[in-house]
Design a protein that fits this description.
The complex is a heterodimer of chains A (about 270) and B (about 110). Chain A is built from eleven helices and no strands. Chain A has about 270 residues and is mainly α. The chains are: A mainly alpha (about 270), B mainly alpha (about 110). Chains A and B meet through helix 3, helix 4, helix 6, helix 7 and helix 8 of A and helix 1 and helix 3 of B.
Chain lengths: ~270, ~110
Amino acid sequence: MESEFDDVWELAKAKIAEEETTLWLNDIGLAGIIYHSFNRQTIGAIDASRVTQTRMALRGFAAKYCTDDAARRSKGDVEDAGRILDRAVSVSVRRMNTGLSSWISQENHTSEIFAANYVDSIVVRYGNQARAIHSAGLFLDASIHIVEKSRSTVLDLLRQLREGLEVYDPTLLLNILIGRFAMFGAGFVVGPVTAAVMSAADFLLAESVKELSGSSGTGVAGMFEAFRTALEVSGVQRDDAYVDLGSQIDQLRLGQSPKDHICSRPSAFDADGE
Amino acid sequence: MEIDIEAVRETGSRHFPDLAEEYATAAEAISEARNALSIDVLGGSAEALDRYLAEVGTYLDVSGGHLIDCGAILVSLVDDLDWTDQENAFNLENPSQGVDLPPNMS
């Protein structure tokens, strides 16, 4: 029976996928809306992909530049620092060299001073900025986790319903499924609205509930209670993850000052003001 | 490697709110479906189903709110980055501007 059930289920899902665009454009029922809202390619998938690309860029950047080694290699080396800055945040080396030329044209201003009290400062600040970007990447990760968690939970509602109905009245469920979807396999042509009404999701939440409630009302009620409890627990876990994320973001933002990220202009004075 | 600031900003300001809007739409549909359900027809399972659907709606609404907040945070982070980039670019090009104060006095 399981094998036959799976065949019908796959047939129903294939039909839904085939009719997806039409279904989306029509006034479909409750579970159909859930299914198609969260299974549409544009929902979750594309957005998560775009966010993931950004996250990978952030991670790559942080791994490449947010290291003590990068700062050490650039210390005292204007050109190397310029290259790091150029690659890291699209600041032109030419821009920095222009600044250097302007600086050393003044009395008592040497490239050594420039490197010692300006480039070092810039590297430190860009290091701070890089760490902030790295943290932003972690936040993106956590955000994606929240998106995927809620998306998978909602998609899982259909699986829960199917499994629940299998447990409480599998024979009736199988008969209903075969009756509803066998016509697809037999080559019947149905209109888009009819197909929408016959979506597996619609069927599970509307028709089957009506029919099952008459034969095993208490059992089905218990099933819904179990689903509700599970969803409630999932929601609490999601909220906990969200609170953790918010706490980390707050800590980051409170721990930062604009001065940590903006380089000062060079000074001819040394650190002691001499 | 360059960070596409606009891509990050768009992710926070458009994609996340769009996704939240989809959650809100689904939650609204569920609310309408609950109103349309007939207790007489559904029998003993109706109240349990109604509570379950209410939980689904709550789950969607709260998730949507979280998504909007996550998007706003991304925008604020990228705004900070954008602003400091502009400040640094200006300072790099104009190192001789301003008053030269000793570091311990600035």
